[in-house]
Amino acid sequence: MKPRIALIAHDKKKDDIVTLAAEYVDFLRGCNLMATGTTGGRLANELGLTIERKHSGPFGGDLQIGAELVMGHIDAVIFLRDPMTPQPHEPDINALVRACDVHNVACATNVATAHLVLSQLRQAVRK
Ligand SMILES: O=C(CO)COP(=O)(O)O
């Protein structure tokens, strides 16, 4: 079965998520991808990935992805948060990360962990 991966990045981390996704683009093309609105737009436009785009994060996109996760529709979350900038929708961000912990879904919140998660998933698909 195709891995189902959610991709999210705060504004100052969007270049990082595009760079990260570019490194795994062949693998990601074979996944079912979901993203918050602006992140998904960049990944689609710049890498040609097919992604189900939810609302932008501050408008409920994190919550929409959280709801999908709670329903068992997501295998891993790559969520490059910006720890240096306050976000207006901090409760939504915390809700999504908490839902990952409640449901034991892998959640990478920085690039180093994202590499570990993506390379492991890619390896599992190759087997
Ligand atoms: O704010 C976000 C996550 O909390 C990301 O939303 P966008 O991808 O729409 O910028």
TrEMBL record:
InterPro entries found in the cross-reference section: Methylgl_synth (IPR004363), MGS-like_dom (IPR011607), MGS-like_dom_sf (IPR036914)
Residues covered by the MGS-like domain: 1-127
Record-linked PROSITE patterns: MGS (PS51855)
Active site: 62 (proton donor/acceptor)
EC identifiers of the protein: 4.2.3.3
GO molecular function, one term: methylglyoxal synthase activity
Residues involved in substrate binding: 10, 14, 36-39, 56-57, 89
Catalytic activity: dihydroxyacetone phosphate = methylglyoxal + phosphate
Keywords: Lyase
CDD domains for this protein: MGS
One GO-annotated biological process of the protein: methylglyoxal biosynthetic process
A Gene Ontology term for the protein's cellular component: cytosol
Family according to the record: Belongs to the methylglyoxal synthase family.
Function: Catalyzes the formation of methylglyoxal from dihydroxyacetone phosphate.
Protein's name in the database: Methylglyoxal synthase
